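Homework help board

Subject: predicted structure for assignment chain

Our instructor gave us this sequence and asked us to write out the predicted structure in token form, then describe one feature. I got the tokens but I'm not sure how to describe them. Can anyone check?
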Amino acid sequence: MLEKRTTYPIEIGGVKRNLRLFEVKTGVRIAIINILGDTELVQAAAQELAKKMDNKAYDVIVTAESKSIPLAHALSVNTGKPYVILRKDYKIYMGDALKAETRSITTGKQQTLILDEKDRELVKGKRIAIVDDVISTGSTLKGMRTIIKKAGGEITLEAAIFTEGDQSQWANIIALGHLPVFTD
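My token output:
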């Protein structure tokens, strides 16, 4: 039998979900949003973010693998802008890829973000919108910024479905809401 977990309610564009809380370190729990496979929530989030990003100048959407991939795709469909995925594992076909290190709050481990050689031209000299599902510690965001800079792109906006943690730290992020951090 599955353990009953405490949840945190959210609503995006009329779509409601109860996010389960998970302990990320002793006495600290966060609400986990997993948009993979949740087409209804992804579509609602992409539509709402696209509205908030509408008056901003950008040419390409960039996100990190993997939970934000459907969001980037749906935003691309909504805005007509291409998107690029920063991968976590290098494959031989990626050629002369750019790399940056990051640490995930959900895994607690170092991760590498990789910009495929074929996508470097999509970023070079372009205005970039960095998009993520949740911006919490900023580690992934920092890794994405590093790669965009190395590739010669200009970040003109940063957006997420939610921010989390110290809300004042994310004042410049376009977000649909803010998730609290729960402490015992």
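Reply (TA_rk): Your tokens look well-formed. For the description, you could write something like this. Residues 39-53 form the longest helix (15 residues). That's the kind of observation they're looking for.
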